[in-house]
């Protein structure tokens, strides 16, 4: 668990510095890209606890542990592309408008 907690202060700092420059949608997609690559290279506690059976099954079916880890990168990149294609780019004003419309629905 310590491995994951080490990244939190750095993520908060980077998020605070770049969210306004990149926009929410681009920042979320780039974060997913970086997470897919870093998670595969560095690994993390969650990787060894949760994804171990998935990685074992992929390694068994492909015969190559490096190729099996590559699938995680591909899934992360596809997720980032889906974010870029389907998540609307919301500015501060559009978030306020969305909140007001949601409150009217309630």
TrEMBL record:
<protein>
    <recommendedName>
        <fullName>Major facilitator superfamily (MFS) profile domain-containing protein</fullName>
    </recommendedName>
</protein>
<dbReference type="InterPro" id="IPR020846">
    <property type="entry name" value="MFS_dom"/>
</dbReference>
<feature type="transmembrane region" description="Helical">
    <location>
        <begin position="66"/>
        <end position="87"/>
    </location>
</feature>
<dbReference type="InterPro" id="IPR005829">
    <property type="entry name" value="Sugar_transporter_CS"/>
</dbReference>
<keyword id="KW-1133">Transmembrane helix</keyword>
<feature type="transmembrane region" description="Helical">
    <location>
        <begin position="27"/>
        <end position="46"/>
    </location>
</feature>
<keyword id="KW-0472">Membrane</keyword>
<feature type="domain" description="Major facilitator superfamily (MFS) profile">
    <location>
        <begin position="1"/>
        <end position="106"/>
    </location>
</feature>
<keyword id="KW-0812">Transmembrane</keyword>
């Amino acid at each position: 668990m310590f491995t994951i907690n080490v990244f939190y202060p750095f993520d908060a700092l980077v998020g605070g510095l770049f969210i306004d420059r990149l926009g929410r949608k681009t920042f979320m997609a780039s974060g997913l890209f970086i997470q897919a690559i870093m998670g595969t290279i560095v690994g993390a506690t969650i990787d060894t606890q949760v994804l171990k059976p998935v990685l074992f099954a992929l390694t068994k079916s492909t015969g190559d542990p490096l190729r099996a880890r590559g699938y995680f990168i591909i899934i992360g990149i596809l997720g980032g592309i889906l974010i870029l294609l389907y998540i609307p780019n919301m500015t501060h004003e559009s978030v306020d408008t969305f909140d007001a419309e949601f409150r009217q629905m309630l």
